[in-house]
């Protein structure tokens, strides 16, 4: 409970305002990235500092030689979608974008497209935690173990299916408990 309260406060007080400032171009890319990393180092509450978060972010920056295109693509990708279909499109578009730039590097330095659902959904949840679950490995593993989820090679479809499972679980928990459950609350149960 205490860790969850700290996480919500950090999202509300630091992360969401920073993401919104970046999306509205009040903060430039370098400042945004520095402050996101710093906020996560001060409050390691999301696992963002791992391979799928910061590791992907660093590889993406190294792979994208056109800074303006990188900035435009990143802003578009991390803005919270308004529907499951738009989430699917955002992931598909960002996978294509990353693969184009990653092909310019050797394989060791290329950003891993498999990290994209985690990376994008992390930012989406910071904007709307009840609607957009983070596609983190702990929850995916729990869903696989419980036979609630099957993964494919389509990252976009897999994320939308994962989100739909979150929504079904949220409804079931709400019906059972009589209390509100959003995707963020389901994540807490699965972890």
Relevant terms:
9 helices, 191 residues, globular, mainly alpha
Description:
The protein is mainly alpha-helical. The chain is built from 9 helices and no strands. Helix 5 runs antiparallel to helix 8. The longest helix is centred in the last third of the chain and has 23 residues. It is globular and about 50 Å long.
Which word captures the global form?
A: globular
Helix and strand string, N-terminal first? HHHHHHHHH
**Structural class assignment:** mainly alpha
Reported for the largest beta sheet, the result is:
none
Rounded to an integer in angstroms, the radius of gyration calculated over CA atoms is 16 Å
The N- to C-terminal Cα distance equals 13 Å
Helical percentage: 55-70%
Report low-confidence residues grouped into runs of 5 or more: none
Kindly state the number of beta strands: 0
- The percentage of residues in β strands lies in under 5%
Write the layout of secondary structure elements.
Layout: H1 2-23, H2 29-42, H3 51-63, H4 67-78, H5 84-102, H6 116-127, H7 137-145, H8 155-177, H9 183-190
Helix pairs in contact: 1-2, 3-6, 4-5, 5-8, 8-9
Brief characterization of the structure:
The protein has 191 residues and is mostly helical.
